[in-house]
Amino acid sequence: MPLKLLRFWLPLLLFACHLLAETPQCFRFTWVGAYENHSNIVTETCDSRVGDFNDIPCVEPLVVTPNDTVPDVKALWQNTTEDRDQYLCQMSAAHSCVKYSYIFKGGILNITYMCAMVNASNGCYRQTHENGMQVEACVCTSRLGMIPCNGCSRQRLHDRVMGLALCLLGAYQLLNKFRRIV
Ligand SMILES: *[C@@H]1O[C@H](CO)[C@@H](O)[C@H](O)[C@H]1NC(C)=O
Ligand SMILES: *[C@@H]1O[C@H](CO)[C@@H](O)[C@H](O)[C@H]1NC(C)=O
Ligand SMILES: *[C@@H]1O[C@H](CO)[C@@H](O)[C@H](O)[C@H]1NC(C)=O
Ligand SMILES: *[C@@H]1O[C@H](CO)[C@@H](O)[C@H](O)[C@H]1NC(C)=O
Ligand SMILES: *[C@@H]1O[C@H](CO)[C@@H](O)[C@H](O)[C@H]1NC(C)=O
Question: Are 104 and 132 in contact (CB under 8 A)?
């Protein structure tokens, strides 16, 4: 009897384990914003745009959009004909999804979506620089099988802003190194 039972339950168990092994996902790419000649984007890299030892987040692939409008992440998520995995990363344990935007006079200049280890609770953090440039980092936790949370438009805005950017970037660079090693 137990053998028969096992034969029935084992595939089910393995299937369940497979499901458990899956992790929620985050969007991962940089939308470069207004871009002169779209056919030139293929020649661009994060190195060429922001350099190596820089505090500015940038994650490949670099993406341009029709009319340079902000990315329609919902369409991206729903587009199964496209290889959307290249725009996603696994939100592994202790990591969050992050959306990092540069905003000037209310207009969004560019956005970097990524997975990162962040020492901050979920929500949006905004920093305004002297020249009027605003940097907004939104942190969230995706749910399995759902559209990654760092695509959504509006999240709670925290008053607390200090420190986050640095802390986030440290983690981001570490992660990047880690990814290169693996
Ligand atoms: C865009 O760049 C491509 C390749 O560099 C070039 O062939 C094309 O003429 C450019 N288009 C415009 C409108 O500048
Ligand atoms: C985003 O815009 C800011 C402000 O113009 C710029 O400094 C930064 O390099 C841009 N990021 C990317 C990845 O192009
Ligand atoms: C781009 O702009 C043109 C002219 O304003 C408009 O007709 C077209 O629908 C826009 N395309 C997208 C994808 O928004
Ligand atoms: C899906 O992606 C492909 C390749 O980028 C594109 O040609 C197509 O128009 C997209 N479909 C939708 C519904 O966005
Ligand atoms: C994380 O943040 C908390 C409170 O903001 C702080 O007390 C703690 O030292 C931080 N940890 C690290 C590793 O930065």
Answer: yes
pTM: 0.78
Domain boundaries, position 139: 22-150
From the CA of 38, which ligand is nearest?
1
Residue 98 within a domain: yes
Ligand 3 mean position, distance from CA 67 (Å): 6
Task: Choose the residue to mutate in 45, 102, 128 for probing ligand 2, maximizing ligand atoms within 8 Å of C-beta.
Answer: 102
Specify whether 36 is located in the same domain as 60: yes
pLDDT of res. 13:
47
